[in-house]
Predict the structure.
Amino acid sequence: MSMIQKLDDLHKEFQGQIAGLTNQADVLNLKADYLGKKGKVSEILKSLKDASAEERKELGPKANTIKDSMQEMVQDKLTSIELEEINQKLAQDKIDITYTNSVKETGIHHGGVHPRTLIQQEIEDIFLSMGFDILDGPHIEDEFHNFEALNIPGDHPARDMQDTFWFDDPESPEGRKHLLRTHTSTIQVRGMMSRKPPFRFIAPGTVFRCERTDASHEMVFNQLEGMMVGENVSVANLIYFMKTILTEIFKKEVEVRLRPGFFPFVEPGFELDIKCLICSGKGCSVCKHTGWVELLPCGMVHPNVLKAGGIDTEKYNGFAFGLGMDRLVMMKYGIEDIRHLQSGDLRFNSQFKTF
Ligand code: FA5
């Protein structure tokens, strides 16, 4: 039998054998039997030296074609076995991603999205659509960012307005003490220092005060700061943004009142109160029986604050506000005690958006 004939026979034999294989290890063994160093094809090729010159001319390309074809069959087979294995696995592991089981069925409480997160996401979307950036800042601050840059020097009585958790670690290199930030207004300072006017941003975050807790006061609570700096920013702009937040969140008319408020970092400063939605203004523990809840202090940024932030006060001015997020959430969902928000009780969370 000629060597060409032998190669053709091996090719056919290989084709027949590989067709019946169903696992990758067998395919690799078969490959070694035929194409390995001591494999059947290699053995035939070793006897090439005994062939006539004419036969050798034909045999070289023929052997390569057959080897390539066998390699290709091996590759195709490995791929089809792998696919088959994946399909089998998929058929066995059926996951229904639409399936939800109830607490009754499983006894397991599923968590939900915290109502504050829901409101925060809504507010962020509203402000992003109005061209505001969203900023963040550290919980541990120094006196400069929490007080001094906000026009509250060391001896200013306004420091007592916010009972502060101080650290007794070494002071900062500039000789300033560290503290847990008492308000998100610290991010006003960081925002001003890191950008050039005109700019506008909001900054949601947790703040800390050494206070007694009650139905509307927590020691760890959340604010959402807002700041807009540009040329000719006015109180009318400020009121427009305040109204936008409230109408978008409540999606109904809510009664508010604007009254003068004192904060060293704004002038003029305002307190925006909302008619208590827990008692409809009749008086309860949330509104301390006044019918009104302090929600959204705000004002025109004091020139000293702009200067501390590196802003040219001849050219630019701005407004700022500090929304009480937890109280907003309470008003929106009729939550009668702020302490529910931090209770970590899944029965509370699962009343809102569940997974
Ligand atoms: C401030 O913290 C100012 N930084 C806000 C501000 C920013 C004014 C920019 C002007 C310009 P105040 O201490 O009033 O202000 O707190 C702001 C809001 O946080 C309050 O209206 C209230 O809704 C909420 N808040 C204050 N203390 C507590 C507390 N202990 N628990 C829950 N919410 C609180």
